[in-house]
Backbone:
């Protein structure tokens, strides 16, 4: 299938390469020439604008850093004339946006697309650059069932777990609500581990108990933030690799703003956002997000 | 074995009966005559004080509501003369305290016992009255390895999972640190579920995604607080049964005071304690602790 | 002076009337016909768009509900053609925006105005509808000194306290940072009063002590939230009148989003935003903001 | 008047000296010989126990570090025999405790004293060592009116502001509730100042505005935490001198425990306790409590 692919950064690059591996043909666009070059070396066609990238393709995939980028790439102007995907794409072509953005913007852009005759699904991912390279990402997909079914074989070239979350925007809702739970549970684990050790327990013994009890969570049994409890996690290699604290902060900012707009209290979510903000202000934003335990224990 | 058993409430009663079932002989004590009567009907010998209850037995088990009770039952006076266990028990007899109390008191009393010639383990439980009746409690045991091995066959009459947590007091540490994680994760789940639904998702679909992702925890996959997501949990029967919100509040109060005494920050633990306090003040203390979601959604 | 005035709601109406009283001539615009009618009855000229309202006047004043309104009124389009103030106003005319919005938008719009040849000051107010009617508002003004001096005599027709806060956007910064402090201090007072009374003190006696000690603040000595402590405050008339809890929630939402964008932690500010959100969710948003004490005491 | 004085540390020493200056005769006790020596050099009689110190005096004043000390000094035993004040003092002698402790203990000890025939008032102070030396302390007094009137002339030798707060324990309630408000307001000021400056305002200009608006509080207008805003405050001399952050942490710990015992939510009070705990863990406990702003701004 001929696919337009826009956004060729750390995530977009390996995702595009996995589409190539499965025999698809790509036309690509990015504002950074170096990122484009890596794909042209693999034989991809280059477009000069999102509109051009969407012209003559059978499907469009986008992977962008934030809500304003998504708006601009789909409906933006350049020097006064329309340059966005919607001004170039043929009606009927399915649009897949894999960016993590706020659900409100996702729904807005999907409505604009619909008005233009194009169906759109939001399909944010989890799994990080490792999952993108291995083709094992999870895609959380919001959109009509028929569109989900159409998107699925394409997404399966890049991921392993393709989940339908309901209508437009629900992929984003699933992603940010899950990540809010994750952030709070990581801090819960950090506080529990640090306190148990301060009160005299061995960290592995305590983790073993919590992980077979009601306190267990992914952050304690799979990604424990206390150094030495698990092998092959960021906590056991100086919090390098993994999912950056500043990326978690970005998701927490998204989710707390979505909660505010929806008038929905999220007391611990808001506190978690503040704790990651403090952690980042102290200079730890580039470390894995499990490094939040540094707020609670001396090194 | 002849065992002295003190504290015959909702938890102590079924625990004592399970010891009887396994062929042990009991001498019992409680300040509430009605609670004592239920055991005498089963043939237990009655004692008039903790000291008397501990006289002539081979092992002592206590199950009491709070730290001051434990102190008083082990080392207290009545009308000016010593009436506690330590004034009646023979040196060498092992003492097992299954109360949930603060680790500091647990260690203090264990030291008093040691000075008197008795080894002691703290062995708080999880599993609730259901587990107590079924004999499937988890015991988190703090004390020397030799004492743990001696206590184990007795605890196995009342529970299924007997875990050694390290030295004296560590059973309490494991219990309260696990429950702090549990409380925070329950609130994380409540906030995540409520927000996902407010933003337009089906609660079962969202729970399904979180439970196979990094947001999963016991509170989401085994005890989900959103009505209708799981069968046979308190959320699906009006938050009746289960583990009461006021009991969680009691444990959170214990753990945050232990953290204060240890100068250990527990930011979300303190916020969780306050949220359960608010919930209780609003009149929901008798409901299951998953009812905390009422702070976040309209009924 | 001939002034264009846009935004004729609860605040804008009395502000416009005070300008009339001081002999100024007004041309007015609002999207709600009923609000416009009240001013035409007083002899004001009516305009059909913001652009038209700004044409041929010597100064423009706007009083709008939120950031998107401000952007749209200054730079918006209607049916594809420019209809905002900047497309109608003559270069050199001073623009005064009295809306409470985020500082970032305030600075953005001021830059757009500058590019068009118009200087602009942001001049949000405090003092509520009472102050607007009495002409005793405080104006916090951000902009160049020369523009501040030009705006001052006009603002003095509507207010008593005209404060220069520095460059563009600083009026907004002063307003929202002050209101964040106010919200936190109001909750501090509510918690202190409620706890002192629960612990056995008379509320007036405790307030008297705090107000002459280091705990004193405007919320305790001038606007006490405990019923019966002060006369003529909302707490002593069922929390009617005053500054609505939902308006405080709006300002807290603005300030916490500005803090997020600036990567500045505001731990208690974020907690205050959540508490006002909870209070609003419970149905108390229309009451005065001192009613937040309802979270802490039984009625 | 012949007065027994117990507790001769940083606060007790200058308080005792001020009593001497006003012509009173002192019999003193402290467990630290060096502290006692400083008073014997001034001609005070020395006692060998609290009981001995209270024998033959007309009034007793105590100034101790914590609740357990107060219990022990009033009702304790030494080597198995009663050594506390109540075992030595004559019935009818008034007892004044100026320690800052929890209201519950204060009321308990006052009841013990009453049973022994002695009236007691709790009279914690504010004003620090500076106020103790200058004789300008504020005393917050809990007890009967008649006892308050009897205590007043004595307290006026050591302080300037003598306030009756109601019955036994209310002095403590006033002290800790005021200090909880103070701590929250200090953090409110720190967050407001730091955010206003990050968003582009001059710190003095913003403080000037807040201090004449609804955000004003003692922490902003008299003890501003931002360096350079006020002269002669700890913020302008590297946070030396003043009221130590660890002393504020101690008071916050007292007040949040009193709130827990009373089942009274104090959401921001609990958050403030945690923030001071974090600040202390980072090594800043010895600085003035306004240094909490270090959590919010780079040095």
Residues:
């Amino acid at each position: 299938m001929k696919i337009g692919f826009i956004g060729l950064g750390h995530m977009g690059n390996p995702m595009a390469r996995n589409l190539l591996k499965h025999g698809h043909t790509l036309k690509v666009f990015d504002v950074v020439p170096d990122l484009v070059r890596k794909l042209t070396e693999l034989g991809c066609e280059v477009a000069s604008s999102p509109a051009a990238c969407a012209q003559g393709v059978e499907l469009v995939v986008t992977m962008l850093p934030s809500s304003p980028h998504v708006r601009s790439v789909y409906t933006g102007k350049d020097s006064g004339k329309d340059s966005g995907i919607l001004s170039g794409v043929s009606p009927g072509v399915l649009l897949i946006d894999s960016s993590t953005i706020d659900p409100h913007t996702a729904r807005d852009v999907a409505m604009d697309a619909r008005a233009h005759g194009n169906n759109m699904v939001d399909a944010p991912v989890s799994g990080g650059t490792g999952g993108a390279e291995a083709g094992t990402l999870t895609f959380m997909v919001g959109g009509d069932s028929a569109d989900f079914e159409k998107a699925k074989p394409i997404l399966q070239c890049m991921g392993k777990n393709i989940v339908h979350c309901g209508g437009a925007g629900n992929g984003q809702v699933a992603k940010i609500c899950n990540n809010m739970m994750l952030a709070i549970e990581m801090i819960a684990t950090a506080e529990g581990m640090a306190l148990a050790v301060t009160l005299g327990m061995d960290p592995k013994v305590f983790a073993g108990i919590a992980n077979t009890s009601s306190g267990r969570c992914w952050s304690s049994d799979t990604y424990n933030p206390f150094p030495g409890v698990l092998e092959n996690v960021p906590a056991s290699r100086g919090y390098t690799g993994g999912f950056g604290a500043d990326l978690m902060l970005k998701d927490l900012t998204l989710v707390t703003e979505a909660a505010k707009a929806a008038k929905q209290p999220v007391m611990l979510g808001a506190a978690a956002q503040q704790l990651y903000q403090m952690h980042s202000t102290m200079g730890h934003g580039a470390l894995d997000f499990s490094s939040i335990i540094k707020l609670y224990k001396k090194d």
Chain D touches chain B at residues 253, 256-257, 260, 263-267, 270-271, 273-274, 277-278, 280-281 (CB under 8 Å). Residues 2-168 of chain D form a domain with the Rossmann fold fold (CATH 3.40.50.720).
